[in-house]
Amino acid sequence: MKVRTLKLRDEDFGNEWAEKVEDRWLYDDFKKNERWRKGWISFNCAAYDPAADRVYCGVTSFDSDIFTAYDRKSGRFVDLGIKGITDEYDAKFHRGLTLGNDGCLYAGIALLHCVDRYLDAPGGAVVRYDPRAGTIEKLGIPVPHTYIQSMTLDDARGVVYGIGFHPQCLLEFDLNTRQGRMLGLITSGAGGGIMSENIVIDDDGCAWSNWSLTRAWNDAPGSDAVRLCKYDPREERIVFFQKGLPLPSGEHGYAPAESFVTLGDGFLYAGAHNGSLYRIDPATADAEYLCTPVPDRRSRLTSLAKTDDGTAYGISGRDGRCELIRFSYKKGKFEKIGPVKDADGTAMWQCHHIIATGDGVLYACENDNIFRSSYLWEISEL
Predict the structure, then answer these.
(1) Which residues span the domain enclosing 65?
(2) 279 with 265: CB under 8 angstroms?
(3) Which of 97, 173, 181, 299 has its CA at 20 to 30 Å from residue 164's CA atom?
(4) How far apart are CA 198 and CA 194, in angstroms?
(5) Is 379 within a domain?
């Protein structure tokens, strides 16, 4: 395979993270330091627009510069004017960037600040970008002071569903009325963050997420606390399933879903537990463990991209040791294609999202690199 790094920013931070930043800096420290404010970025999510032949990207930025496009014809990144509508608390499009049937891009704004700024920060807005007119606008804030960690679009109903943070909740925003609401909490916060990286809609129009027990009579919620849930718009309620993803070892407990994806066969698929792949029956939430491509070190599987020939690709591994995986997902099998490194030997730190274009090219979003600016990765000649 052929791998290229596409660099929106290229700041080298050396060992500053371990020596200066980690467990020391607060939100304001990043805002005051120009190198880190502008240069420490992540590529969080991407969406391909075949009409413009552009890869639109959601970016983490303490500078609120959170939206760009890679123009494939010119080979350059394009400024989309996001800085004209963002405020100081608008920190990223995390996993909430979708191309609608109307040709517009929709996204939800996520946060980086802590709860001491909760009442100061207005909340995450739903953003619409029209690539034909070149216009960008905030349509509204679904839940005041709450930001949108991930978002998906239901074109048929004209609504977006999202996972809010803080608090961790499911939310809805009507694109026609521009009104939003919280659908319900998915955790009390006991046991920490339980959110999946993204939210997905199944073939029946239900939006899927994790949820967690509180078990207030215990010191902690427990190893089986994180389970599956879905918002069913027909019933107008969250269905809380009393089951989750089984641990590969067969031990008691559930593995929190890190990601969800639909691949056109009626099932849901999830990445969890050190980059393992699961299959979920959306009618019952019964989940089947399929495989763990990289079991010998820290790994993750945050998304899958399906190409036009029906093949699914993902990137597993992390900490600078990532591998491209080809999945035969119906059979629960996989094939390792190779390490994700460019021609200069630069290695991907970890993958947050991967998409496919119609010509067989993959674009992978690198995030949270503690040594340098994260890059957009182009993978071809598969």
Answers:
(1) 47-185
(2) no
(3) 299
(4) 12
(5) no
Is 238 part of a structural domain of the chain?
Answer: no
38 three-state secondary structure: helix
Q: Which helix (H) or strand (E) holds 76?
A: strand 76-79
CA distance 142 to 152: 13
Q: How far apart are CA 365 and CA 305, in angstroms?
A: 12
**Average pLDDT, integer, range 60-80:** 98
Residue 214 maps to a domain: no
d(CA 195, CA 183) in angstroms, rounded, equals 15
Query: What is the value of pTM for the model shown?
Result: 0.97
Question: Mean pLDDT in the chain?
Answer: 97
Q: How many domains in the chain?
A: 1
Please say whether the beta carbons of 138 and 186 come within 8 A. Answer: no
Confirm whether 139 is domain-assigned.
yes
Closest CA to 56 of 110, 1, 112, 130: 130
Compute the Cα dihedral for 359, 364, 140, 174 and give only its sign.
Answer: positive
**Tens of pLDDT, residues 308-342:** 888 999 999 999 999 999 999 999 999 999 999 99
Domain CATH for 116:
2.130.10.10
Task: Judge whether 381 and 13 are in contact, CB under 8 Å.
Answer: no
Residue 173 and residue 160 in contact, taking contact as beta carbons nearer than 8 Å: yes
Q: Sheet harboring 376-380: ordered strands across?
A: 2-6, 376-380, 362-366, 351-356
For residue 310, the model assigns a pLDDT of 85
Answer for the pair 11, 375: CB distance below 8 angstroms, yes or no.
Answer: no
Q: Is the peptide bond before 167 cis (omega within 30 degrees of 0)?
A: yes
Tokens 């989309």 correspond to: 80
- Alpha carbon distances (Å) from 284 to 152, 211, 287, 370: 22, 16, 9, 40
Identify the H or E element spanning 31. helix 27-32
